[in-house]
Amino acid sequence: MSLQYLLYEEEEKIGFISLNRPEKRNALSRALLEELTALLLKIGQEKKVKVVVLKGIGKIFSAGHDLKEIADGSPQDVLEIFQTCFLTMRAIREIPQPIIAQVHGIATAAGCQLVAAADLAVAAEDAQFATPGVKIGLFCTTPAVFLSRNIGRKKAMEMLLTGEFMSAQDALIYGLVNKVVPSSELEAATKELASKIARYSLSAIGVGKKAFYQQINMEDFQALNYATEVVSLNTTTADAQEGIMAFLEKREPRWSDN
Predict the structure, then answer these.
(1) Average pLDDT over residues 43-70
(2) Do 17 and 115 fall into the same domain?
(3) Are both 158 and 181 inside the same structural domain?
(4) What CATH number has the domain bearing residue 233?
(5) % of the chain beyond a pLDDT of 70
(6) CATH number for the domain that contains residue 160
(7) pTM
(8) Comparing C-alpha atoms, which of 61, 47, 66 is closest to residue 17?
(9) How many other β-carbons are positioned within 10 Å of the β-carbon of residue 71?
(10) What is the reported pLDDT for 248?
(11) Please, what sign has the CA dihedral across residues 43, 45, 48, 51?
(12) Number of C-beta neighbours around residue 207 at 10 A
């Protein structure tokens, strides 16, 4: 597919998506979000890669929504922008491949939402995160959804109510990111994490990703009942049967998607 606001490449079963509006601080315009959603769905359907890295070109990861687009739009236009972002978030959640956010510079507002919505995140040690909408009278209500599902309520509300930056180290402590590394090691560390995941069966990864998010807000034994059904069905797949036999025969498994 032709891309105007993104770059995309594939390497060793890893897909690399780059937000490519450095002159606009990788602002998430409606057109960029539409392009990102379409690309994610294509990746999910084609299944050529097993994991996706999402990063930004230029000095920062993303400054969030394009405020000029919001300021110039009618109420209906603005609603459609946020509905477009909703579809992007849903694509991140619903494709079988895990999404790893590779964060440098800053990730603010909807940029922070992208990090929080990703399945995993690796940050440079000088990266910063914020939901500063309160400072301009536009509370970061939509970023709050995924932010509050990553970090504790009190810390989420502190970020939302003050608009102040959270450091990469605090983001690690509070659970917004998985790993913090020196800036010079960010790309290599993210690729290393992606490569670990890419060794496994996409069939199993996809089942696991879907089940994880389905069960997470269920009551304990409702979740366990659901997980029991999922894992039982998972055992009937070709990759599960191959993996079990490979373990018993003390050899490397040969996945169907390799």
Answers:
(1) 97
(2) yes
(3) yes
(4) 1.10.12
(5) 100
(6) 3.90.226.10
(7) 0.95
(8) 61
(9) 8
(10) 94
(11) positive
(12) 19
